[in-house]
Amino acid sequence: MSTFSLNEFYKRNRRSVIWAIFFGLLWVLRDFFGLVFLTFVLAFAAAPLAEFANQRLRMRQGLSLSLVYLLFLLAIGSFVRFVAPDIASEANRLIGNLPQIEQSMVDAKNNLLEQYPSLRQPLNGFLRSALEDDFIVELDEALATERVRLGLDETVLLQSLETGGEPGSAVSQYLRKQDQLLVSALMTEQFQHIRQLAPAAINMVYRGVATTLLALLFSFLLLMDLGRIKHGVGRLRNSRVGDFYEEAAMPVVRFGLLLGRSLEAQAMIAVINTLFTLIGLWILDIPLMAMLSAIVFVCSFIPVLGVFISTTPIVLVALNAGGLSLSFGVIGLIVIIHAVEAYLLNPFIYGRHLKLNPVLTVMILYAGYHVFGLWGMLLGVPVARYFLHDVLGVPLRNRTDKPDTPLVPEPPAA
């Protein structure tokens, strides 16, 4: 009877063991993915800028890197200094304008029902369905009190719902009061949700700022000492973890370069998205266009959530500047822009940078978001590209119909 040998098992399953340990370490360190990813992004963006200053402006490497990161800090500081107060000011203006906004919503609903009276019950049912049970109970109690005050019988009221009652009649007064109570309850409920989410949002902003500052520091130190770090990593080849180095080093480098290409594609999408938004804001005559465009550009690098983060201040400004109609116009504009981004820009630009079919890119983005959420959107396309070409060996072809060349040269044979 043969005995189990750990060395023999490792020799027979060397590749599987190495990658199992590698992915196990990634799983253990998953809480640090955000910091690692942001450090990589900042280093990837800063390196070519520092190289440009080093070659074209004849600066020393350390000075050029320091200048680039000083510009990064100035950009972040300017964003916090000038953009955050404007957003807070618009939020305060919105709170002060709530009575006018509420009345404009009621007037818009009444105008719609005057033209299409049959929509009253479906529309009221939809608004009630958006309310929680506690608000519905309070609403029904207030409406019952109003019926008693106006001396209305429920049977007569139901018969008059289709016509809306004569102007100035008890039925017309009751329906107007019902509209006001419904809209008021809906807005009160939504602002209550916002107040409940505010601590979590503040904590998320605090963690985001702290992570960004740490990533700035780590990426700066990484690039400043890049030569010695490369030398130190290369020495792992002759160490006890040499097998891990030989097996995982080149795939990690390949994937890093793929991720860099993906970031370049996302930056191009962010520029085009910001340009479209700026044109739309100019057409709609929305104030603070420069500030709002800057927010859109920054949030374009955040898949899915970035849409909602950038839309909020734009809608606030539109509500304060032109009321409900202008805010609906802005929402329509953003829906169109992000539909173009999702179904045209993302597939075309991602596919061109990573040499993937646009239809396949759409499928990857959709599946990545629904299976892995935010990380699926960020890493889905480069991961799929890596597995298709580098792992499975599927030949990806460029526009000249020539086989795709490797991202990095293969290591020489031992």
How would you sum up this structure in a few lines?
This protein is mainly α and 414 residues long. The protein has helices at residues 6-12, 14-28, 33-56, 61-96, 98-115, 120-129, 133-150, 154-160, 170-224, 226-234, 242-284, 289-299, 305-354, 358-372, 374-391.
Describe this structure in words.
81% of the residues lie in helices and 0% in strands. It is mainly α. Among the domains are: 6-34 and 242-391, no CATH class; 98-195, no CATH class.
Summarize the main sheet.
Answer: none
Helical amount: over 70%
Estimated structural class: mainly alpha
Please indicate the percent range of residues in DSSP E strands (runs of 2 or more).
Answer: under 5%
N-to-C span: 38 Å
pLDDT average, as an integer?
Answer: 76
What's the total count of β strands? 0
Unreliable stretches covering 5 or more consecutive residues: 399-414
| Morphology call | elongated
Compressed to H and E, one letter per element, the order equals: HHHHHHHHHHHHHHH
| Total helical elements | 15
CA gyration radius, whole angstroms: 29 Å
What features would you highlight for this structure?
mainly alpha
Write the layout of secondary structure elements.
Layout: H1 6-12, H2 14-28, H3 33-56, H4 61-96, H5 98-115, H6 120-129, H7 133-150, H8 154-160, H9 170-224, H10 226-234, H11 242-284, H12 289-299, H13 305-354, H14 358-372, H15 374-391
Helix pairs in contact: 2-11, 3-4, 3-9, 4-9, 4-13, 5-9, 7-9, 11-12, 11-13, 11-15, 12-13, 13-14, 14-15
